[in-house]
Amino acid sequence: DGRGGSGVSTITRTSPRTKRPSLYKVLLLNDDYTPQEFVVWLLEAVFHKGHDEAHQIMMHVHNTGVGICGVYTYEVAETKVAQVLELARRNEHPLQCTMERE
Ligand code: TYC
Prior knowledge:
Layout: E1 24-29, H1 36-47, H2 51-64, E2 66-72, H3 74-90, E3 96-101
């Protein structure tokens, strides 16, 4: 038990030392009013997507109702959602964005 005559015992680690943080998907929701080009611009500006990928994500949301913009740790995901909602609000678009644990 680690007692080598020194009186000091050793505690054995039973779980991994590092625990990975939970990850959260940031989801964009479709609506009938937000311009397609605004959504593409937002995906470039907030989520650092290239123009072609941004356009593909926007069309996926347009066609299916929902799509993933990215996967982040809790605080980063929260910040992205807040940025999207603030940009939509400032531009008077009804665009909705939410986050969901993976
Ligand atoms: N459906 C919108 C339109 O036709 C475009 C759009 C795409 C809106 C994605 C929101 O998350 C969205 N103008």
